[in-house]
Structure formats: structure tokens, C-alpha cells
Amino acid sequence: MLKIPIKGITPHNVELDVFCDWIEGSVLFVEKVLSTTDIVDALCEDYIYTDQDKGFRVVADAWTELRRRQVWIGSGAPFSITGRRITRRSRSWENTPAHSFCVLLALAKWYSRWAKQFGSDYTEQGELFEELTKESLETQFSGWRIHLTGWSRTRANMLASIVADVETHLGEHKGDVGRWTKPRAKEAGLDLLCYRPFPDGRVGVPVYLMQCASGGDWEGKLHTPNLKIWTKVIEFAATPRKAFATPFAFTDRDFIQNSNLVDGMLLDRYRLLSAAQHRKNWLSSQLRNRIVAWATPRVTELPRRNG
């Protein structure tokens, strides 16, 4: 299995979200099967717990959480839990690239030394996550249009161009961009434009302005995109709503608190992956191949126990 992270799993203080990520990562990338005893033994060997009973209690909490997650994505779940065992359903992580990608992005926060091996340029990672979010929403939101707006090497538009693009898609009027933004502003926190048009082509439709945060610094982006800016650079007929996507998975308490901070729609790992409930192979072959190419060297270097 994977080494126990030094963040989030410390003696007598096990954070459930980190613990579940560690179990998911261990099953996806290392072990075909893990038992509750295997996990408790690892916790005791690393002195997280000296009392096995306490170890089994925290594993029971994790089992409950992982079973819920399994239900949320249905047949698309890469693991199954039966009794005291969690089992990888497919032969390799490459058969579930969307799930594997999201777990790797989360693990980068818990294994910072491992993540640093691959440099500090997160452009490709961000692009892949934005495109994964787009394809998930297109699968789940029938009739909605999802448009990529975020800055990248391949979409190196400054804010004025993005505003004009959004204006064209929605049929809204542009405001005074120069007054409310800096000259070299990029996307002002807007990565995806999500809207549901009507046949009449008029304004006043459901609109979400979405931030896609793929890195461990996602908490600092919960306030973006800033509607105070966007409702001035575009004269919306009806105020849009915010949305936020992240590859991390949250306990119920954290999900509620983060939803409040977003003040809109929050898509965590399992809301994104629930696209599998609508179509089993929802990821495009092109994006699938790009994710596998990005992930392969990272999976190879994952920190493993006894190795």
C-alpha cells in the first residue's frame, strides 16, 4: 500500500478525508485488495495507534464513508467494499482515468515531496481538470452549454477577450472592463461558463460562472469568480450564480461549510465522477489518453510502504 501521509494522519489524530484518500490511492495504484486488518496493522506499525481497537474504529468510519462514495458513482466506482475488504474492480488504474486523476491531484497535497518531483508548473494539470469538469457537466446537465474560458498556454486570452466571448455566448452587454479590472488581468477567476439557453435566444437564462481549482491551494479560491467584478464588466440582465469544482472529496460537515463559502454550486470529486451514473464511459478518448500520459510517471513514483 501507499506510505501513510505525514499530513492529516498523525498519532491519535486521523482526518477522515485524508484517510479515505490514502485508502483509495492504495487500492487504485498499489494493492488489488485491502482488508481492515491490513490497514489497522499499518496504522499500528507507524505508531498512529498503539491500540488496535481504536484503529478498527477509525477504519469503520472510513468504510462507511467509502460505501457512500461507492453509491454516489454506482457502477462507475473503481472499488467495491464487501465485509472487511475493499477491492479494485478493474485490472489497472488506467481503466478508470477520471477517478485516478482526481485522487492523484488530492494526494499531491498529502505527499508534497512526491508532487514536487514534477516541477512547479501546474498549467497542464489545470487544463486537464477544467476539461474533465466540462465533460462531466456536459454528461450530467442535458441541454446546458459548457464553455471553457480559463487562461492557459493554448487559450492565452486576456480578460477583455474573455469578456467579449462571454458576451457573445449569452447575448449580454459588455460593461466598462477598463474601469473595474487591471490592464493585464487574465480570467478573473472564471474557468467555465455554464448556461442553459432557451430557443428564443434572449437573456435572463440560468448562468453559472465556475472556478476549477485543481491544486492544494483550493481554499484560497473559494471566493472566485468574483461576482462584484463580473456583474460590472458584463451588464447581466439577471445576476448569475457562482460554481466551484475541485478534485478533493469532503465529509458532510466540510461540504456544507465550503458550499456556504462558495455561495453557489460546489462540485467535489464525487459530484464530478457521478457522471458515470448517466453514462459509463463519459470521458472522451482524447482526454482519457492525455490524463493517462500525465498520470503514468506520477503513479510510478508514488511513495509506497516497504519500498
What key attributes describe this structure?
alpha+beta; five-stranded mixed beta sheet; 307 residues
Descriptive account of the structure:
- By secondary structure, the chain is α+β, with helices and mostly antiparallel strands.
- It has helices at residues 16-29, 36-45, 52-73, 97-110, 112-116, 123-140, 159-170, 177-180, 227-233, 252-262, 269-273, 285-300; strands at 9-10, 13-14, 33-35, 79-82, 85-88, 145-148, 173-174, 192-195, 207-212, 234-235, 241-245, 264-267.
- The strands form four sheets. Strands 6-8-9-11-12 form a five-stranded mixed β-sheet, with helices on both faces. The chain has a three-stranded antiparallel β-sheet with strand order 3-5-4.
- Helix 10 (252-262) links the parallel strand 11 (241-245) and strand 12.
- The longest helix is centred in the N-terminal third of the chain and has 22 residues, at 52-73.
- The radius of gyration is 21 Å and the shape is elongated.
Give the helix/strand layout.
Layout: E1 9-10, E2 13-14, H1 16-29, E3 33-35, H2 36-45, H3 52-73, E4 79-82, E5 85-88, H4 97-110, H5 112-116, H6 123-140, E6 145-148, H7 159-170, E7 173-174, H8 177-180, E8 192-195, E9 207-212, H9 227-233, E10 234-235, E11 241-245, H10 252-262, E12 264-267, H11 269-273, H12 285-300
Parallel strand pairs: 9-11, 11-12
Antiparallel strand pairs: 1-2, 3-5, 4-5, 6-8, 7-10, 8-9
Helix pairs in contact: 1-4, 2-3, 4-12, 6-12
